[in-house]
Amino acid sequence: MKNLIALESYPLHQPESDAYAALVQRCNQQLFSKGMFDLPGFIREDVVKEAAEMVKPAMTTEAFRHARTHNIYFKDEVPGLAADHPALTKVETVNHTLCADQLGDNPVIRLYEWEPFADFLAATMGQTKLYPMTDPIGRVNVQASYEGEALNWHFDRSEFTTTILLQSPDEGGELEYRSDLRTPEDPNYDGVAAVLNGTDPDVKKIKLTPGTLNVFRGVNTMHRVVPVKGKKERIVTIFTFYERPGVTLTPKEQLGFYGRTASV
C-alpha cells in the first residue's frame, strides 16, 4: 500500500503511533467544526493519473448518464412546505457513473478493500467500526462531469461522504457548500432558499487537487459541484461504507442510481 498512499504523511499503517493519533484528532476536529476535512496528496500522483486514465475508456462507452431535474430534497413535495416556496426551486444535475464492477483492478478498489482505510475513516468520524458494502455496484463509484455538467445543490442521505478527486477540469468543478444549514429539529427552509438565490454570505467554495481525500459531513450541509468548463472532465471516486456489514442496495435503488441491477 506504500506505493499507493503517501504513508509518510498519512500513517494509516501505524494506528498505534503518535502521528496517527494526531492525524485522527486533527481530521475529527475539522470534520465537526468545519463540516469536512481534506488530505492533499493522500494518493500518490502517479497512482492518481493511472486511476483516472484507467476509467476513461469505459466512461465513454459504459457509464450510466443520469440527468435529472430536482429540488434539493429529491422529493416531489415536502410536508408543510408550499409548492411554490423558493426552497423547492428546481435545479439540474448530470452524472456519468461507473460502478465497482466496471472498475477492474483500478487502484481505488484496492484502497477501498484495505481495512486500515475504513478503520481510519471510522476513527475520524467518531465511529467504532466501518464496513465496505457487499453490493457489487454501489460500493465504489467513479463519476465524471463534462463541460456544462455538475452535481447540483442537495443534502446527502448519509451523514458522511468520502471522495478522492482523480482529475480536475480546466475550469469549474469546485465544491461549494454551506455548513450546518439545518438540524433535525429545524429544516431552515428560508436558509435553503437564500443559498439557492445566492444571498447567503456564509457559502464557501474550495477547489480540491487530484489525489486529495475529502470527507464531508453532507447530511446537514447543503452543497454542489460548480459546473465544469473546458475540454477536461472532472473525475471523482466516491466510497461508501456502513456501520454494519453486509449492506446492499435494493434492486429498485440500483436501477434508480445506475440504470441497471446486479445481484450480490
Structural features, described:
The chain is 25% helix and 22% strand. The chain has helices spanning 18-34, 45-61, 107-112, 115-125, 189-196, 251-258, and strands at 36-39, 64-70, 91-99, 131-132, 140-145, 161-167, 175-178, 204-206, 213-216, 222-225, 234-239, 241-242. The strands form three sheets. It has a seven-stranded antiparallel beta sheet. A three-stranded antiparallel beta sheet has the order 8-7-10, with no helix packed on it. The two termini are 27 Å apart. The mean pLDDT is 94.
Which descriptors would you attach to this protein?
single chain, 264 residues, alpha+beta, seven-stranded antiparallel beta sheet
- Low-pLDDT parts are none
The helix/strand series, from N terminus to C terminus, equals HEHEEHHEEEEHEEEEEH
Termini Cα gap: 27 Å
What overall form do the CA principal axes indicate? Answer: globular
Please give the count of helices.
6
Residues in helix, %: 25-40%
Q: Largest beta sheet: what is the strand line-up?
A: 1-9-6-11-5-3-2
Structural class: alpha+beta
> Mean pLDDT, as a whole number?
94
Largest sheet entry: 7 strands, antiparallel
Strand percentage, roughly?
15-25%
Rounded radius of gyration (Å): 18 Å
Number of DSSP-assigned strands: 12
Topology of this structure?
Layout lengths: L17 H17 L1 E4 L5 H17 L2 E7 L20 E9 L7 H6 L2 H11 L5 E2 L7 E6 L15 E7 L7 E4 L10 H8 L7 E3 L6 E4 L5 E4 L8 E6 L1 E2 L8 H8 L6
Antiparallel strand pairs: 1-9, 2-3, 3-5, 4-12, 5-11, 6-9, 6-11, 7-8, 7-10
Helix pairs in contact: 1-4
